[in-house]
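sry for the spam today, last one i promise. C-alpha cells for design, 166 residues
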C-alpha cells in the first residue's frame, strides 16, 4: 500500500547538512539498528519529512532537502544565556558545540547547545542544534501499514501490529 495520512511508516534515514556534503551525518537510524516508526499526520516528525513520506511504498529509496522552516526552524538571535555552572550536571566536561541538559529553576530540564565555557558560568544557546540548517535526508521506506485504532487514539505509532506499546 501507499502511505497517506494515518498510515504507519517505518523507515531508515540518514540526515546531514545539505550545504556540507562531506560532513558527518547528524543522525543515522541504521547506527541504532532499528528503523524509525511514525504515524503520519500527527506531528511526530518535522513537517518536511512528514510531507515527503506521503505517497510512498515499501522499498522506495529517495533523497530530499528540507529548508529550516520545514525542519528545526530558523536560527533566532538573542537566545544566548549565561548560566552558572551549578545548573549543569556535567559542567567540567562541556565544550562549545556540545548539546547538554540544563536544570531549570522550576525543576525541569531543557536541551541547550554550549556556546562558550567560562570559569564559573557557561553561555548556552536555546536554539535547537539544527536550527537554521537546510538538511539533506536519505530515506528508505521499510514498511507501510494502516494505523491500528489504538495508534489513532494515542496519536503515535506502536511497534509490531500497532495494538499495544509492545
Ligand atoms: Zn500509545
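last one done:
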Amino acid at each position: 500500500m501507499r502511505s497517506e495520512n494515518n498510515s504507519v511508516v517505518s523507515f531508515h534515514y540518514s540526515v546531514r547538512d545539505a550545504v556540507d556534503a562531506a560532513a558527518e551525518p547528524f543522525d543515522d537510524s541504521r547506527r541504532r539498528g532499528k528503523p524509525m516508526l511514525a504515524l503520519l499526520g500527527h506531528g511526530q516528525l518535522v513537517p518536511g519529512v512528514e510531507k515527503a513520506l506521503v505517497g510512498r511504498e515499501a522499498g522506495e529509496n529517495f533523497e530530499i532537502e528540507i529548508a529550516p522552516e520545514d525542519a528545526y526552524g530558523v536560527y533566532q538571535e538573542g537566545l544566548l544565556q549565561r548560566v552558572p555552572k551549578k545548573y549543569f550536571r556535567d559542567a567540567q566536561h562541556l565544550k562549545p558545540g556540545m548539546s547538554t541538559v540544563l536544570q531549570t529553576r522550576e525543576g525541569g530540564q531543557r536541551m541547550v547547545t554550549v556556546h562558550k565555557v567560562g570559569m564559573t558560568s557557561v553561555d548556552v544557546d536555546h536554539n535547537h542544534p539544527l536550527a537554521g540548517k537546510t538538511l539533506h535526508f536519505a530515506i528508505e521506506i521499510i514498511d507501510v501499514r494502516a494505523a491500528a485504532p489504538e495508534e489513532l487514539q494515542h496519536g503515535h505509532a506502536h511497534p509490531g501490529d500497532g495494538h499495544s506499546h509492545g
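The chain has two domains: 7-73+131-154, 80-125. ok im logging off now
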